[in-house]
Design the sequence.
């Protein structure tokens, strides 16, 4: 990375991303010793020699973050080392986005290498220009893509969808969109907004929680380029 990113302990900041189309994780870096009481919603950096032991470093997600609302960052993992004055960690997460209107779904694994500095007293950094920085210094970020991100096919296409009405009867309707994804999103919107329609299934199916908009989608036609 050409530029180091810094986030002070007990402050909010964004982790840099390796691709400009990724939403940045908006996080709150927790103060040292916060790790002594485990709290829901926080990610704790585990000792690299003993993955049952938490180091002094942890963070949580900013509740107003767009990336958190979208749920694109998942499966966080963090291991590292903590000394009395410094530490480091490898923090990784999977970036998954299936709702981008312009690109097919993507799944990528991103890893950040972070150095932590906490020598002396934290007030020295704010009051003394030569004081050591107290916080995270993000040294590097890398990515491995499960497959390449590709544009969606936006050729107009029509599908027939089957859902249910308020009486529980099966109802079918056709929806044309600029590509498969657009057609499906328009069909879901119609079901959400039509007071006479409801989703097809609202029950467990083979042990899985299911809340499906439609239980059948049938291809009708697709525009042919001239």
Sequence:
């Amino acid at each position: 990375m050409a530029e180091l990113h810094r986030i002070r302990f007990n402050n909010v900041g964004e982790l840099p991303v390796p691709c400009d189309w990724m939403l940045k994780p908006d996080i709150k870096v927790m103060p040292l010793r916060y790790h002594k009481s485990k709290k829901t919603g926080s990610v704790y950096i585990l000792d690299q020699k003993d993955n049952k032991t938490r180091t002094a470093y942890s963070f949580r997600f900013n509740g107003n973050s767009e990336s958190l609302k979208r749920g694109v960052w998942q499966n966080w993992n963090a291991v590292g080392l903590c000394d009395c004055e410094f530490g480091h960690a490898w923090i990784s997460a999977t970036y998954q986005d299936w709702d981008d209107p312009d690109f097919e779904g993507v799944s990528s694994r991103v890893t950040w290498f972070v150095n932590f500095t906490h020598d002396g007293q934290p007030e020295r950094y704010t009051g003394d220009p030569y004081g050591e920085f107290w916080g995270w210094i993000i040294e590097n970020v890398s990515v491995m893509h499960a497959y390449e991100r590709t544009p969606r096919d936006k050729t107009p296409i029509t599908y027939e969808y089957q859902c249910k009405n308020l009486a529980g009867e099966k109802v079918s309707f056709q929806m044309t969109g600029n590509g498969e994804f657009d057609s499906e999103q328009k069909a879901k919107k119609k079901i959400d907004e039509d007071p006479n329609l409801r989703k097809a299934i609202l029950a467990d199916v083979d042990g899985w929680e299911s809340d499906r908009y439609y239980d059948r989608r049938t291809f009708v036609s697709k525009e042919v380029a001239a």
The chain has two domains: 5-145, 156-222. The chain is about 10% helix and 45% strand. Residues 5-145 form one domain. The CA atoms of residues 23 and 66 lie 8 Å apart.
